[in-house]
Request: fold
Amino acid sequence: MTLSWLRYPTLLCLCLLSTLASANTLRVAYDADPVSLDPYEQLSGGTLQLAHLLYDPLIRWTPKQDFEGRLATAWQRLDSRTIRFNLRHDVTFSSGNPMTALDVKWSLLRAKSSPDFKGIFKPISQARVIDSHTVDLITEQPYALLENMATQLFVMDSLHYQGFDHNQRAKDAVEKHGHSYASEHASGTGPYHVTQRQQGTLLKLTRNPVYWDHASPGNVQHISLTPIHDSATRSAALLAGDLDLIAPVPPIDHYRINKHPDIQLFTRSGARLISLQMNQQRRPELQDIRVRQAIVHAINNKGIASKIMRGFATPAGQQSPPGYQGHLASLAPRYDLALAQKLMQQAGYGSGFRLSMIAPNNRYVNDAKIAQTVVIMLAKINIKVDLVTMPKAQYWKKYDQASSDLMMLGWHSDTEDSANFSEMLAMCRNPDSGYGRYNGGHYCNPEVDRLVSASAKQTNLKKRTQMLQQVEQILYQDAAFVPLHWQHLAWGARKGINIKDVLTVMNIPYLADLVVAQP
Amino acid sequence: MNNVASVLSRLITSALIIILVAMVSYWVLGLISPDETRNLNLAQYLLQVVSGDLGQSQFYHQANLQLVLQVLPATFELVLVTSLLVVLVVIPLGLFTAIAPQHKLARSIMAVSLIGISLPVFLTGSIMVYFFAVELNWLPTFGRGTTVPIGSWQSGLLTVSGWQHIMLPAATLSLALLPLFLRLLRAELLQVMQSNPVRLAQAMGITPWRIWLFYGLRNATLPMITMAGLQFGTLMAYTIVAESLFQWPGAGSLFMQAINRSDGPLVSAHLILVAIMFLSVSAIADLAYGLFNPHLAAWRRQ
Reply:
């Protein structure tokens, strides 16, 4: 009798266990909700992760960084401007329409009309339909990264998105945050269908019963995706058994998650560069190469990586992470306070000056803390920094206006290639071509522009590597920006979920191929 | 006649306060989304607000009023269960600590209640999650669980999973409010027990339980009602923290998301709606005060 009160907690535990046992549903939480089901509405990691569940690209990166055919069974380069793709014959969209070369052509046109994606697909001039299941992708000029582009070309159902919705808007419209038809209705060839969606709260997916990829070992039948913004809540929910898989895991929780017997932590080096842009347009001081060098030498990025990021980052001396074509092992992080102080004196700024600085506080791992540390480090060379941190929604407007002297920027190459860093961050700002779009420092070196442009046309891999490495060398010598670190990736998962087998370096998990061990 | 005048003056004050809040929210709107106020001056904005049009969210492309009303049931249920917990805990504990103020248990209750008032909500919330969800694995950590629609109202109070999910956030919130009410009730009870009517009742030989419940508690309830009305604002502020911590899909979460997304129209509409709720609650508290207060009731009868 005295023990009867124990019954209720025990019952409760049994209930929780029974939900765990139905392992057919994978309960996932990310930090943010994908804003749209449309793969071409917003360029972001969240969109890409979701696109791989609802749609298929022509080819994709494997977790080992090779290309692998998806909707294309085979592809070959016909000449320096063309690759021919042979498509699968047995693929249908979730609407029931068969997938053909016309859908590929239509999807490319749609991507090229999207404000966020037109820059990425700019080099591809057209898709030429050869027959119902053969299509050529053709570039304006010789282009080395055509295959990289094809990994982002998700094929949508051209017949399904014809006509108008009940609001008399065209079903194929791409409208950012516009709640367009495509953002709420997905017809793709992908491994999952949407069964329930409450934006910002829950997205439920069920495996496509007629998915073409019969070779996939994946056994996850249902996925529920919940956005949990608070990282402590996310970790606690995984530890409590309310979730099976979470990302990202903040460094402060790594130890607890690792220690837990039923949960595993998976980390890997990532390719997102965290940097500071030194705005030369606003400050003549920053046009002096000695001042920029002094700033780079005053910032102890190894210390930031080990103390603030708790080893969850690789300190960087350049844009390209190891493994990228442009990476030069000799360009190591520079930290030398004595040299930094000497450079400031040589430049005539021994007594220092004031700089304004902005950084986001909810975009990158520990972004605000890193910014605060930079303020302290720069004080040692007499640069007084007025720091303002803000949520990312406000931040990007300020960044686009280049409205501060020092600005934090994280960048992950859209093409998994070195050139994308330089095109977006280091080339001279040019509103017409879109190059230098995120070059908040207004650094401009014609030699860099020439080399990067030439590398895009160079299909000889060895020569191209040399060009991209030369670009890194120049940026290093010019101290074009402050490289901080490459942020690592962290996933927490219940034991038996081997997320590392299906995770790419771009941080995209192929959940359809995930094998969950049945308890 | 007097009644009508007081109601009228109250309505006029409320309207003035709402217009003042609307002015502030116009300023906030301009601060977060300058584009929105470019073609809309203050007078036009106020006219819109008065006519019941609180604008459209930039992110959701839906009417702000509708968005807030959609998530309000979640917040309302959280506030309801929190208040219920506070009442259920405060009355027995308050009685006990007032009746036996020197008892060791009473002293330790008062000491522990200090912790509740001095710890911030996000900390007590995290500690609760750590013990009851992570270590003991009794309760879920986030969300509302299964909800059942009652008309357009999505209720979580009709399912087991809904009750499981509401326990931690409601307990966290009530921990923050408990100490204040507990101390107030205890102080009031101690005072009432010393008053002449109670002494007379004791002299007449009325049973102690009857005295505590009907003479003591009833008189001590009045300042509690005033305090509850005043604390409503605090509770609204705390729900924002608790909802973010427990991923509770209510008005507080919506407000935080709106701030993070720089959704100016939604933020400013939310400010106005909170002001309206605040005014309504204090009006209700005053009405309740009138109902419970025998002095006022007697005065009304005259």
Chain B has a mean pLDDT of 84. Strands of chain B lie at 148-150, 153-155.
